Amino acid sequence: MLNHFLEVLIGLREMYDMFGIVANNHPFMKRILMPYDWQGHPLRKSYPLQGDEFASWYEVDKIFGKEARDLIGPELRDSAEVNRYDSDRFARLGYETPRGVEITGDEEKHTESYQEDGGVFLIKKLNKESSTVIDDPQR
Amino acid sequence: MAQVTNRLTPFFENITFDRDDNELILNFGPQHPSAHGQLRLMLHLQQEQIVKAHPDVGYLHRGMEKMAENMIYNEFLPTTDRMDYIASSANNYGFALAVEKLIGVEVPRRAKVIRMMILEINRLISHLFWLATTALDIGAMTIFLYAFREREYLMDIMEGYCGARLTHSSIRIGGVPLDIQDDFLHQLRVFLNKLPQNIKDYEDLLDENRIWRMRMEDVGVVSKEMALSWGCSGPMLRASGVAWDIRKEEPYELYDEVEFRVPYSDKGDNFARYRIYMEEMRESAKILYQCIDMYEKCVKDGETELMAHSPRYISAPKLDIMTQNYSLMQHFVLVTQGMRPPVGEVYAATESPKGELGFYINSQGDPYPYRLKLRAPSFWHTGILTDLLPGHYIPDVVSIIGTTNIVFGEVDR
User: Using CB atoms and an 8 Å cut-off, which of residues 194-233 of chain B contact chain A?
Assistant: First the structure.
């Protein structure tokens, strides 16, 4: 086929990548869509939709090594998940605790707020203590 | 010397860095602005000339074919938006057509006319976008602004129809979800009346432009044999001397009722491709004028159906669902379980703005396709770069990538 249709050069590579079917006499039988060091062939029926163990730890294993798996933890698949103990995500607004510190549940609410040194041009910080609330509709 | 790879030194396929010759290896992309998304090219250079090119794709691979095997048919339709995201309705349509062929329903005429209008608007959007980005890559900033201005009108029309600007999902299996809005035809007519002058403006700026011609003429010549051998389709194939347009060869919808030309050229270079895109815009405008007349005739004849009548596969109109018990039951089953097409396989090819967009579906009678293969034109147009780039110089790479018009949502799927 290579004599007539050069398109098979990439078509067969995709077939190999997705199904693991190896074509004879192909000059460059390498993966095309998946990373070169991937294990498994994703379009096979035996390959799970969520990916196998290799897939779920692929980046961690490659960048930090297998021993970092426990430290980093599994990949967060649910993009809508809210972890109430995750202080990074401000799920505990006002009661943030540093990572690694045990959360007891009776932390004091802190009143710290962020302000640029010397203030920002034209912008005034609202001071809740010194401001007054006007509730007289006839004012 | 073989390269030593470990955790920190990256692996480059088939490349050794200590070489005896004077070849330099240039890594082009995947974050290069003219790489049109996520194309990574490994170019072997002798001086500034390319001797070997190796496109590396897959940076946007989301496994759509695997996703399709785990979704009911209607659920997969919005996913097709993310293939060729420049003209997403063309993908919606390709998938809808394949499923309609599989279940064997006939789409009402009014829906067909609306679909054709949407498809041609998408073709115009895609071609204007192509013109804008390619001209920008080559340095013609003015064209970019002009073409985006015109594209904006069409995006507004699409937004008025389906509420989305980029990911339309405007076509359903069995028809279209909505009739066109009141001022759709008026807006379209206003736009189409202006379009010939706009295209002429672009051509005045580009056709006789010395720089444009130097960058385009006799650069990236694809011979007829090469185009056929690499599986090219669409403007890539037509620029190489094959007047092949699926709208003419295997007419779908009402393309056999409208009159249009298939522009083609024998030269096969970048400039020929540019000319074909411009001519195709004119042909699209011609088709749209005829569609407007066809739609008005549909209204006059009192054809109001927008979805095919096929209770086993397609939900009844909303009024029936709300008033008739049996329609409600069927709707419930179709939404919760999904339609179950008959056992069989089907391949439906459509002429998307980029080329032949084909959907192969193998159905085992389940609500989920057993296998769904997306034949995206850009994937094959990426392959040809291996053959096309050697012999050219680095600046030509940019213009060749531009005129091949590859979109990476479609290449990587």
Answer: 226, 229-231
